[in-house]
Write a structure and sequence with these properties.
Layout lengths: L2 E7 L6 H10 L3 E6 L6 H11 L3 E5 L6 H13 L5 E4 L11 H7 L5 E5 L6 E3 L3 H18 L11 E4 H6 L9 H14 L4 E5 L1 E3 L10 H17 L2
Parallel strand pairs: 1-2, 1-4, 2-3, 5-8, 6-9
Antiparallel strand pairs: 4-7, 5-7
Helix pairs in contact: 5-8, 7-8
This protein binds guanosine-5'-triphosphate and magnesium ion (MG).
Amino acid sequence: MKSLIIIPTYNEKENIKKLVNQVTELGFHILVIDDNSPDGTGDILEKLKLENEKINIMHRERKLGLGTAYIQGFKWALKRDFDYIFTMDADFSHNPAYLMGFLDKLSESDLVIGARYVKGGGVVNWPIQRKIISRCGSFYARTILCFPIKDCTSGFMGFRRKVLENIDLDEIKSEGYGFLIEMKYRTYRHGYKIEQYPIIFVDRLHGKSKISKNIIWEAIFLVWKLKFRIK
Ligand SMILES: Nc1nc2c(ncn2[C@@H]2O[C@H](COP(=O)(O)OP(=O)(O)OP(=O)(O)O)[C@@H](O)[C@H]2O)c(=O)[nH]1
Ligand SMILES: [Mg+2]
């Protein structure tokens, strides 16, 4: 069984080397999708790749967003022989140590979600406002879409290949949090088995957050679109 970890990056020079080393040492292949980071993340990756054959890099011309990065990454993985495909942030909010547990759960489920808002999960170092927005966002999406997912905006996920083969990736146009909700909802509507795996999410120690207010608004409207469009 072969697994690929897809990691989108934009200005992650403080994190990328350590992260890539930790993930590949666990035996995983990695695809980093870098949007021409002005801080030179792409160059650091090219150097690392010379010594590590598990590293793959996709360079994009400019900052094109998390959603399109993942869609391109999924398509790249499906052209190759990967059985399990994971999504993960580069900023160590998603601890690579959980990947083995995800993999274990994927033997009996189709999607594993690293979930903060289940028993055993949690968030460390976020200000109270951010905690409230995130929890309310998940509650809002779960209620409107009537689906039993506790952490709808988690970006730490593991998919069985067949899920990505059967979701129409070209139909997905959402970004940021909207994209993360949409992937979970489409997987659920297809009837796939979803496992919520408790994780402790730690706020980034290095580098800056790239999320914007627009992305929160987009997610608020998207939930209604998904409710009426996806049967
Ligand atoms: N390729 C690419 N990667 C991106 C883009 N925007 C964000 N990322 C990466 O996506 C991941 C998540 O972005 P973050 O800024 O950490 O977003 P977040 O985790 O919601 O916000 P923080 O909690 O503040 O870190 C990180 O690995 C970023 O480097 C983008 O436009 N293109
Ligand atoms: Mg982050």
